[in-house]
Design brief:
CATH architecture of the largest domain: Sandwich
Largest sheet: 6 strands, antiparallel
Helix content: 25-40%
Strand content: 25-35%
CATH superfamily of the largest domain: Jelly Rolls
């Protein structure tokens, strides 16, 4: 049986729906998931339909078979679905923290300047970044290479490579996802850029 603090009936129903949704998303029949989880198809059907109690050992087996964790399978619903951005007018950007991974941040930024023409203005720091160009064309300088990233294209790269990004031929708008280390590196770089010395 599920030991939960949330209303057990509500959570029980959520977990059953999640099992079925994950199975369907994989394109598996009841029989296919039953084989993977070493359960009978009738047992799995009764679990999904609420006609059988949810046992912890079965949930562990089902989570493994569905390529997820027990924590994710029994995760409770949250009321915090919508978040508002933090606006940074000086850098023409908006930032949203990602609740699922508190170290990650999503940033939307409008760029008007081309990337720096001097390699000394390129930055390197621990972490990884992923960005997509929402409008316009961006130029990504990465080490000794130059990439044009056009609307709806994305780039992912380790930030230990010296890098810089800017606009080409007019303004562009990008959305980036930064892991904890990359976000810290950018915050340090922004502080350096803002320092009048």
């Amino acid at each position: 049986m599920l030991p939960m603090t949330q209303d057990n009936g509500e959570l029980d129903s959520l977990v059953r729906k999640r099992i079925r949704a994950l199975r369907v998303a994989q394109g598996w029949s009841l029989d296919e998931l039953a084989v993977r989880a070493r359960l009978s198809p009738s047992t799995l059907s009764r679990i999904e339909n609420g006609q059988r109690r949810l046992a912890l050992d079965q949930l562990v087996t089902l989570a493994r078979a569905l390529d997820t964790s027990l924590d994710q399978l029994v995760e409770t619903a949250t009321d915090e679905v919508i978040s508002s951005p933090m606006i940074d007018a000086a850098h023409q950007s908006m930032r949203w923290p990602i609740r699922a991974d508190p170290g990650m941040t999503v940033v939307r930024q409008r760029m008007t300047d081309p990337p720096p023409d001097s390699p000394t203005r390129m930055r390197a720091h621990p972490g990884r970044e992923w960005l997509v160009v929402l409008s316009g064309t961006a130029v990504l300088l990465l080490g000794n290479r130059r990439f044009r990233v056009e609307t709806n294209q994305a780039a992912e790269f380790p930030t230990m490579l010296p890098h810089a990004i800017g606009a080409e031929g007019g303004p562009c708008e990008v959305m980036g996802i930064f892991d904890r280390d990359a976000r810290r590196g950018h915050q340090r770089n922004e502080a350096l850029d803002d320092d009048p010395r």
